[in-house]
Amino acid sequence: MGSNNKISNIFQKNKRAFIGGLIVTLFLTLAVVVIGQISGYEAKKLIASSLPGLNMLCNTIVLASATILALLLTLLGISSGTKNKLKKAHYKQVLNIATIDTILFVCALVLFQLFNIPITETDNVPTTWYDVIYWSTLIVSSMLSGALITVILMLYNTVSNIINIVGLGKDHHLISKEELEEEEEEEQTTEKE
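^ thats the sequence. predicted structure below, dont judge the formating
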């Protein structure tokens, strides 16, 4: 029960990012289905021709995910170095990005390994399996792309919050209220002196 509540909470706080990722996933899946239906090739030939692109996509996602994890460490350094005390919600947001990004990293790496199995070179696989393999790989790659878009949109939200807080000095909902009250008291004390 607590796990479902946590997932629901993550979704609610990052609704726009998840919707953006879902739109990309649906768009890519639709494009793949339309192009796959138009081509008229058999699934075995389509798998053979699409594998280099799928491998490149997985490589790109693995590299992007690893880079995002490194950038999150930099973001945490900036967050902890700010003069304003940030609420735990900011750090939970960063943790959510790191969690989804790590899952994305692992999935892309596993799929990269699976795509390197020379499935089209064997004659022992029934021809009906090629259709399932072809559509599965394309739908899963669409989902990976959508998940990467979700992570990037979540990261954008977090970075824009930090820019507003640290760079522009704006009052923000992620700044701890106690910290703001202390700053106001210090300003009043300075003005009296």
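The chain has six helices and no strands.
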